[in-house]
Design brief:
With 647 residues, the chain is of the alpha+beta class. It has 22 helices and 14 strands.
């Protein structure tokens, strides 16, 4: 085709713009694919270095058997909690795969929208760090900050100034509704976000858009609730008992960080608060910016509380969220690039504090990280293009887990009879194909209030109590041994007898000859002070310790974690022991005498009760947090008659 010279010049002038535009589209597309691969969360098809979370198979089991949340099952995760599992447990492959891919698409769209507003140095650091921040991590807690990030971006992106269309509002609202049924903490954050955004639209006289977001969230929540087989009557119980377990968790699972961890955490929190204040001040003065501050501040608070409430590896939850939100905060407030430049030192300082523990005290080798990165990408590619092969790999990994948990003698004894599990080994029961029958608060370390303890005790006194109980007797954090299960311990000891021991596990069978079980004797009350010894009767004894929390303790428990007192124990042979004493468990009551510390002590009590250690006296002690409780303590003791069950 022959063009005139003027037309040829016009084509040459337009070519650079055309090529630049196409390069921009290709670049954004590659960034979207890169971010999508980072955000995909799939169950692993390869062995992990750490143990699987034993509650995960219960979530799949409960969903498959349509157990009712809030009544049959009470836990920090909801009816869709299986979507967030680190491992595959033989059920719901396609829902898990679909959720992982769709959620990653939505988060990628929001992430690209806001990261494009960040300065080039911060954006570069953010994209380089993204694969490491989204690695499968220990304890199954690594993806919680990504869910928090999604809710933050969703809330800010739904504000009127962002100009989001109705279609995206509906889709994001539907995703928020599903998140409410994955974990109760996410539910609280989603509800707060929906209320803030709805208030903004109503005050701005644009109620239709706010109503679309709220309605899509509510409809998604209710549709998933009914599809999961949940009854409408259980909906209030889901929120009521979810709140009970969440509020009691702060004191029942509290662990303090080391001194350097406290300094780092407070310094990072102050940096984030300073960034939030400066972004708010530098942005146009508008009540809409107040809404942004509320949404971002709520995310920081929840991540801080979840990370430092139990300050072990959970701290990484806060560090990951803090890294992401520190990098994106100026973009969330629509700060101009010039304003972001003078905030750059504070942003980079916050990012350095987030990665400081990994740099100063590395927990893993570079080879371990590289293997995880490559493994996750390979599994994602396989799941995307050959999902059948990926499912087969997951099945082989599940078979490997089964092979490592076999209990043939226990399986032969229990056969098809209902089997309950005490402790933290629910995965063993399900991997062995036992007829599992969970009690309501099946993860006893979460049973940190008198109300929750009573629900479990009532279950083991009801006709639904299982014929067998699988029990590997142990506790965490060096707590007093019988605290976690409370009144369930004497109920099992009065109604069940040990029949098979295999490895670390003992199978207990319900004994019809046990009659009506145990009963409490006369109540004896003592008003004592901290560090004051209280004598304990030689007979089997039940004890309740009531500690009165001060206003300082209540504030500390709300902001971060509750204080954890200690119980000093003097044995009859003069030996002194110290145990942690969660206040909620102590108030509910526990078996204090005899001192049952292991499977050996439990079974020995049936054969040689005189060989079991006996407690002579106890006292409450505070190593820290003395201002969190009154000095006066009420202790109630009762003799327990009818223990143990006769063989």
């Amino acid at each position: 085709m022959n063009l005139k010279p003027a037309a040829q010049d016009a084509v040459r002038r337009q070519a650079p713009w055309y090529l630049t535009a196409r390069a921009g589209i290709i670049g954004r597309g590659l960034l979207a694919v890169y971010a999508w691969f980072c955000f995909v969360k799939l169950p692993t098809a390869a062995p992990r270095d750490e143990f699987a979370q034993t509650f995960e198979p219960v979530l799949s089991f409960a969903a498959a058997h349509r157990l009712q949340w809030g009544r049959d099952i009470i836990f920090t995760y909801g009816p869709l909690g299986f979507l967030a599992s680190d491992h595959y447990w033989g059920r719901f492959f396609w829902p898990i795969l679909l959720w992982s891919f769709v959620f990653s698409v939505l988060l990628t769209a929001l992430f690209l929208r806001f990261s494009a507003r960040a300065t080039v140095p911060v954006r570069a650091v953010l994209y380089v760090a993204l694969p490491f921040l989204t690695l499968p991590s220990c304890g199954g807690i690594g993806f919680d900050p990504i869910y928090f990030l999604f809710i933050t971006l969703l809330g800010v992106g739904a504000l009127p100034e962002e100009g989001v269309g109705m279609a995206l509002l509906c889709v994001c609202g539907a995703a928020a509704g599903l998140l409410c049924l994955i974990k109760f903490t996410l539910c609280l954050y989603c509800l707060f976000t929906m209320l803030v955004v709805l208030a903004v639209y109503c005050l701005g006289k644009r109620p239709v858009a706010g109503a679309v977001l709220a309605a899509s969230s509510a409809l998604s929540f209710l549709a998933a609730w009914f599809l999961a087989g949940q009854g409408i009557a259980n909906l209030p119980l889901y929120f009521q008992r979810g709140w009970q377990i969440a509020s009691a968790y702060s004191s029942g699972m509290a662990l303090s960080p080391p001194a350097w961890g406290q300094i780092l955490g407070v310094a990072l929190l102050l940096c984030l608060m300073a960034s939030l204040g400066l972004c708010r001040r530098a942005s146009p003065r508008s009540w809409l910016q107040t809404a942004r501050s509320c949404l971002v501040g709520a995310g920081i608070f929840l991540a801080w509380k979840e990370g430092f409430m139990r300050a072990d590896y959970h701290v990484f939850l806060f560090l990951i969220y803090a890294f992401l939100i520190a990098a994106l905060m100026p973009a969330l407030f629509k700060m101009p690039e010039k304003g972001q430049r003078w905030l750059l030192p504070l942003t980079l300082g916050s990012l350095f504090l987030c990665v400081a523990p990994c740099v100063v005290r590395p927990q893993v080798s570079p080879g371990w990280v590289a293997a995880r990165l490559l493994g996750k990408r390979a599994e994602t590619v396989e799941a995307l293009f050959t999902p059948g092969a990926f499912k087969a790999d997951l099945g082989r990994q599940l078979d490997s887990m089964r092979a490592g948990a076999l209990l043939p003698r226990i399986c032969a004894e229990a056969a098809e009879a209902p089997v309950g599990v005490l402790g933290y080994d629910h995965d063993v029961a399900l991997l062995n194909g036992l007829n599992f029958r969970p009690h309501p608060v099946f993860q006893n370390l979460c049973c940190s209030s008198p109300e929750l303890q009573r629900l479990n005790a009532a279950f083991f006194s009801s006709p639904n109590a299982p014929e067998y109980v699988l029990w590997r007797y142990r506790t965490i954090d060096f707590r007093f041994p019988t605290l976690d299960d409370g009144e369930v311990v004497p109920r099992v000891l009065a109604s069940y007898s040990p029949v098979v021991r295999e490895g670390a596990f003992v199978l207990w069978k319900k004994n019809p000859a046990a009659g009506s079980g145990y009963r409490f004797g006369e109540k004896k009350e003592s008003a004592v002070f901290t560090e004051q010894w209280v004598q304990v009767p030689d007979q089997p004894t039940w004890m309740q310790i009531e500690l009165r929390e001060t206003w300082a303790g209540a504030v500390g428990r709300f902001l971060c974690r509750g204080a954890m007192p200690f119980l000093d124990v003097e044995l009859q042979d003069g030996q002194l022991l110290r145990y942690r004493l969660p206040p909620g468990n102590a108030a509910a009551g526990f078996l204090v005498n005899p001192l049952l510390r292991s499977n050996e002590d439990m079974t020995r009590w049936f054969s040689k009760p005189g060989d079991v250690p006996r407690v002579a006296a106890v006292r409450v002690h505070f190593e820290s947090g003395a201002l969190c409780f009154d000095d006066a303590i009420r202790i109630v003791t009762r003799e327990i008659k009818g223990l143990p069950a006769a063989l």
